[in-house]
Design a protein that fits this description.
The chain has about 140 residues and is mostly beta strands. It is built from one helix and eleven strands.
């Protein structure tokens, strides 16, 4: 395997299996680098685009991964613990392992976009992804 993995973010397909039942509402998510694309062992690098209106990544946490979110376009609310923090393009939020967090696009007319990453895990499964309020009482931590 080559030591350097290179990809154009515009050519990375969206994850097809992330939907509202797992807390991903009205958003498009790309896992640009992870265990499956790039062979990462300890990080995930991704992009999320949130449609205008009611799009959000609902309250969730991952016990095995820290996360950063760099807002590159639009504005919204970072959900942090039980707080809501307004953010706009240029802002960066950081969440420690196990902290409940999420994001909501607050614009009715503009898309919001973030570049995000996990440190400490190379996939959703190894990160320990867990929804705070699972749909229909199901466990989505796997």
């Amino acid at each position: 395997m080559e030591e350097t993995y290179k990809v154009n973010i515009g050519e990375v397909p969206a994850q097809p299996d992330l939907g509202p039942d797992q807390g991903w509402v009205g958003m498009t998510v790309q896992f640009v680098i992870d265990a499956f694309t790039g062979g990462s062992e300890h990080l995930v690098f991704g992009r999320a685009r949130f449609a205008p209106g009611q799009s959000e990544h609902q309250w969730h946490r991952h016990e095995n991964a820290e996360e950063f979110a760099y807002i590159t376009k639009g504005e919204g609310i970072v959900l942090d613990g039980d707080n809501e923090i307004p953010v706009k393009a240029g802002d960066v939020a950081f969440h420690k392992k196990g902290a409940w967090h999420g994001f909501r696009n607050t614009s009715a007319t503009e898309e919001a976009e973030m570049i995000w990453g996990w440190a400490g895990a190379a996939s959703k499964a190894t990160a320990g992804y867990e929804l705070r309020y699972p749909a229909h009482g199901e466990d989505h931590s796997h």
